[in-house]
Design a protein that fits this description.
single chain; 4-stranded antiparallel beta sheet; alpha/beta; about 260 residues; binds S-adenosylmethionine; elongated; 8-stranded mixed beta sheet; Rossmann fold
Length: about 260
């Protein structure tokens, strides 16, 4: 009798183990299959397993970084930035004309906006950001210093809200890698550029592991080119004169030529 009970329990045990094994195997393959999901238009992919600095959304093989919150405004204004990143050299290389209309996209605290505005006295700077708290800082400085050629624009995640064909140069400093909708944003920027207008991107160089910036907040020249060419921009130049960032120049083709 006891022997029969033991045999019965052994049988039940093996059946249970088999069931558990099947469950484990099917759930693993289900997890692998569902880890990569492509959205209906095929532009973006989403992964549940991803870098903690990113949002789990991928564009042309790159994971999009989390947006730097307005709480980090002090970091953008740090004194050491002037010698660590040499922003003045970057601004000199923009080769601005006094009449230029410049869009500073992802303007943050206006670190670049307010260094550029005196150089375009007959033009203006459109300071665009998605965080109203950042634009409030810019509006405060505008008011305090009586600056008349800086306009703030509250953009959408997928739309910079630049009037069509209105801008000579779109500047994106340490910003592009954070765009949640990079393709839509860049198409909006291209539309906002005058024919022949330029896009200048500054991105920390991911080719150099000695640049101590989080991985998803750096980009390679190759990846930037791939993503800009995908929206019809034409690469002009990559100048690596800055200590940590690529300085990449692209042009909107002038189809009237
Ligand atoms: C790292 S900060 C850089 C700020 C500034 N360019 C600088 O170098 O001091 C990136 C900024 O991009 C903004 N940003 C992120 N996604 C954006 C979008 N889709 N449109 C406009 N701004 C965006 C963020 O709100 C943030 O202020």
């Amino acid at each position: 009798m006891t022997k029969n009970i033991i045999k019965f329990l052994q049988k039940v045990g093996s059946i249970l183990s088999l069931l558990l094994l099947i469950l484990a195997l099917t759930s693993t393959s289900w997890a692998i299959n569902t880890d990569i999901v492509t959205n209906s238009d095929g532009i973006y992919q989403y992964r549940t397993i991803h870098n903690s600095e990113g949002i789990g959304k991928f564009y042309l093989g790159r994971e999009i970084a989390k947006v730097m919150g307005h709480e980090g405004a002090g970091w953008l204004e740090r004194d050491s930035r002037s010698y660590q990143e040499k922003p003045q050299n970057a601004i000199n290389n923009l080769e601005l004309k006094s009449t230029d209309i410049v869009a500073d996209i992802g303007a943050g605290t206006g670190y670049f906006t307010f260094r550029i505005s005196p150089l375009v006295p007959e033009g203006k700077v459109l300071a665009i950001d998605i965080q109203p708290e950042m634009l409030e800082l810019i509006n405060f400085v505008n008011h305090e210093e009586n600056i008349t050629n800086v306009e703030t624009i509250l953009g959408d995640l997928d739309n910079p809200k630049i009037p069509p064909s209105s801008v000579d140069i779109a500047l994106l400093v340490d910003t592009y890698h954070e765009f949640e909708y990079p393709r839509e944003m860049m198409l909006g920027i291209v539309e906002g550029l005058k024919p022949g207008g330029r896009v200048v991107l500054l991105e920390y160089r991911s080719e150099n592991p000695m640049i101590m910036i989080k991985g998803l907040h750096k980009m390679s020249e190759k990846q930037v080119k791939k993503e800009m060419e995908a929206v019809g921009l034409v690469w002009q130049d990559t100048r690596d004169f800055l200590p940590q960032q690529h300085f990449l120049v692209f042009k909107k083709p002038d189809i009237s030529l």
